[in-house]
Amino acid sequence: MTESLFNRLGGVEGITQIANDVVDNHAANKLIGVRFADVDLPKVKHAAATFFVTATGGSSDAYQGKDMVSAHRGMNISPAEFMAVLDDALLALDKNDVGQREQEEVLYALYGLRSQIVGV
Ligand code: HEM
After folding, report:
1. Which of 31, 72, 90 to mutate to test the pocket of ligand 1 (most atoms within 8 A of CB)?
2. Quick one: which residues bind heme (predicted)?
């Protein structure tokens, strides 16, 4: 059997590093940086890391945050902004030497959340 995506991404340590890089990329991204200007970045990094631990097959109670619709409701997030988040995720995966198969799985999982985030 294939190992869980959680293990293949390096467990809590690997995923935390990737999540930190994704959020740093958001803050520096011309298209979406403004969305993160007034948010508590360490808190968002923690939420992103634990969300991914739980979503990839790590501890099921790692993530204690809101569901995706509640977290993004009323923000009026556009399709282009959503793509910018995927771009930032891909950059972070590359930076952390994640293999192509794992990159594809992460991108596919993120894309699947689109309807819970764009325009909700
Ligand atoms: C698949 C894509 C995405 C995932 C998995 C995701 C995940 C998350 C998570 C887990 C949180 C924390 C929720 C909590 O604190 O309970 C969050 C918050 C946030 N998200 Fe997303 N998000 C995505 C896309 C986006 C997009 C496209 C934008 C806008 C460009 C965005 C903007 C934000 C902002 C600004 C917050 C912080 C809200 C605050 O703490 O005040 N997200 N997101």
Report:
1. 72
2. 72
- pLDDT tens digits, one per residue of 99-109: 999 999 999 99
Which residues 6+ apart lie within 8 Å of 3 measured at CB?
A: none
List domains and CATH numbers for the chain: 5-117 (1.10.490.10)
DSSP alpha helices (H): ranges in the chain? 5-8, 11-28, 41-55, 68-72, 79-95, 100-111, 114-117
Question: For a pocket test of ligand 1, which of 23, 39, 113, 117 has the largest count of ligand atoms closer than 8 A to its C-beta?
Answer: 117
